[in-house]
Amino acid sequence: MKLKGEKMADELVSQQYEDLAASDSATQMRITVGFKLLNVSLYGTLESHADDSKELLIMPSMNYDAEPFTLVELVDGLNSFLKGITGKEWFTKDGILNSLKKFLNETNLDSLKISIQQVFLHVKKPKSGESTTEYAFSLKISKDSNAAPKDFTFASIDSLAFGIWNTNNVRILSNMDLLSIKQLLE
Predict the structure, then answer these.
(1) Do the beta carbons of residue 20 and residue 125 sit within 8 Å?
(2) How far is C-alpha 108 from the chain's CA centre?
(3) For the CA atoms of the chain, what is the radius of gyration?
(4) Are 70 and 111 spatial neighbours (Cβ–Cβ below 8 Å)?
(5) What's the pTM?
(6) Which residues, given as ranges, of the chain have pLDDT below 50?
(7) Which residues contact 145 (CB under 8 A, 6 or more apart)?
(8) Where are the domains of the chain?
(9) Predicted pLDDT at 15
(10) Cβ–Cβ < 8 Å for 133, 84
(11) Helix (H, G, I), strand (E, B) or coil at 180
(12) Which of 35, 120, 143, 174 has a CA 20 to 30 Å removed from the CA of 61?
């Protein structure tokens, strides 16, 4: 089931493709779309290039008042969104849980409440061939979840956040506070 924002973006992209197909010239087009992903307002830019390739870019912006979701709701929402754009699902609940288990005490990980802080998505669809997808999600774990990092018993936890990404774009990772310790010290 697609979210309202996903349907709107799909309709705009479909209309853009139809308009370009009917044109004889090398028309280029750029549109900006406002939509919601898991009740978080986002803006994306869609471009059509002269070589008939398409590109989507969602740049990060802070969403401090985002509504928290369970891990299952978050994974389902992100997968629904990304599948609508790229045609495939990217995340599994178990994959994210296994990653979190490396850092967090395992108490009640299934009941974590997580909110989206920032989103980055860059999809390039050439006229033919495979599309490329880069993403980064900055997520915050609700204080109510009582999650705590392993081996961090020397202080109380005020906030806890984590990221999921496949991009190597240092500018994006820096803006979203997702740089590695090594990168931070360089």
Answers:
(1) no
(2) 24
(3) 18
(4) yes
(5) 0.76
(6) 1-2, 5
(7) 108, 111, 112, 113, 114, 160
(8) 4-185
(9) 56
(10) no
(11) coil
(12) 143
